[in-house]
Design a protein that fits this description.
10% helix; six-stranded antiparallel β-sheet; 5 helices; 22 strands; Jelly Rolls; globular; binds fe (ii) ion; mainly beta; 268 residues; four-stranded mixed β-sheet
C-alpha cells in the first residue's frame, strides 16, 4: 500500500503509514509498519472523572493503539525507550461534557527515574490538551491548549493531564511520543473527583470551563498551541518523521533530564 494514502480526514499525513476509518476507528498499517489491534476505552472506564458521572455518551469513548512504528525503527525505539501511540476519539458529547480521557499522571519510569513528558500531534479534528502541575489540593499552574491539525503540544514531566475532543461535531485523532516504560497514576486525581477544571460544551458547541471545587482556587490559562524551538521541535515536520530523520531529537521524551533546567518553568 502507498504510505501517502489519504486518511478519512484527508487533512494531515503523519508520515508513518497508519490509516484509520471513523467511526469507532479501525486502524490499518502499510506494509513495513507494525502496530496492534486497537484497545477500546469504555464510558464506564472514565465515568468517575466526569463532572456528572451519570452522563450518557458515545461508547467506546476512544480507541488506542500503543507501540506503532516502521519496522526499520523497531530496535532503535526499544534501545531509546521510546513508544509511539495513536488515539482516535469519537464525536459527540458525554452529557454536557466533551469526549475526553479521564486524566492521569505518568508513573515514574524505572529506567530514568522520571515521570516522563509527552509530545502530542493532532492528526484529525481539534483537541484541547489540559494539564495542571500537580493533583494535590493546590493544582499549581493550569493550562488548556487548543491544538489544530498538525499542531504539537508538550506536557512537561509530572503534570496531570487529559486530552479532550474540542469539537463535538467531529472525531479527533492524535499521535504521541511517550516513554516505553509507561504507566499511569490516578489516585490523587480520583481523590479529587477529576482534574481541577471541567470542560463543558456550550450551546454554541464551544468549550467553557468550570472549576472543580475539590481543589484549592486556581487560575486557568487558555490559549493556542505554540512552537517549541528550545527543545528542538521542527514546527512543520510530523513528530514521527522527526524521529525517523534524527532519532536523538525526541530523546528527551524518555530522557527528560536532558532538559532538566527547562521543565521547572516550562510553559505549555
Ligand atoms: Fe499521558
Amino acid at each position: 500500500m502507498n504510505r501517502d494514502r489519504q486518511n478519512s480526514s484527508a487533512g494531515f499525513d503523519p508520515k508513518i503509514g497508519i490509516h484509520w476509518q471513523n467511526p469507532e476507528p479501525r486502524f490499518t498499517y502499510d506494509e513495513g509498519v507494525f502496530g496492534p489491534l486497537p484497545e477500546f476505552r469504555r464510558l464506564d472506564d472514565i465515568r468517575r472523572s466526569l463532572r456528572n458521572p451519570a452522563s450518557q455518551g458515545p461508547d467506546p469513548v476512544y480507541s488506542i493503539v500503543m507501540d506503532v512504528g516502521r519496522d526499520e525503527h523497531r530496535d532503535e525505539l526499544a534501545r531509546r525507550m521510546l513508544l509511539f501511540g495513536v488515539v482516535a476519539y469519537a464525536a459527540g458529547q458525554i452529557g454536557e461534557e466533551p469526549v475526553r480521557s479521564q486524566g492521569h499522571i505518568h508513573a515514574v519510569a524505572p529506567h530514568c527515574g522520571w515521570s516522563t513528558p509527552e509530545l502530542f500531534e493532532i492528526w484529525e479534528g481539534r483537541a484541547i490538551i489540559y494539564a495542571q502541575e500537580t493533583a494535590s489540593d493546590d493544582p499549581g499552574r493550569c493550562s488548556a491548549i487548543t491544538a489544530e491539525l498538525g499542531d504539537k503540544v508538550v506536557v512537561p514531566p509530572k503534570w496531570a493531564h487529559c486530552v479532550i475532543n474540542a469539537d463535538p461535531g467531529a472525531p479527533m485523532v492524535f499521535g504521541a511520543w511517550c516513554d516505553r516504560q509507561y504507566g499511569f497514576v490516578y489516585d490523587e486525581i480520583r481523590a479529587h473527583h477529576g482534574l481541577a477544571w471541567f470542560p463543558i460544551v456550550n450551546k454554541d458547541r464551544m468549550i467553557r470551563w468550570e472549576r472543580n471545587l475539590s481543589y484549592r482556587f486556581s487560575q486557568l490559562a487558555t490559549r493556542g498551541a505554540r512552537t517549541y524551538p528550545e527543545i528542538g521541535l521542527e514546527p512543520r515536520m510530523p513528530i514521527y518523521e522527526q524521529f525517523a530523520k534524527d532519532p536523538d531529537s525526541v530523546q528527551w521524551v524518555s530522557d527528560p533530564a536532558r532538559f532538566e533546567k527547562l521543565w521547572t518553568e516550562f510553559e505549555m
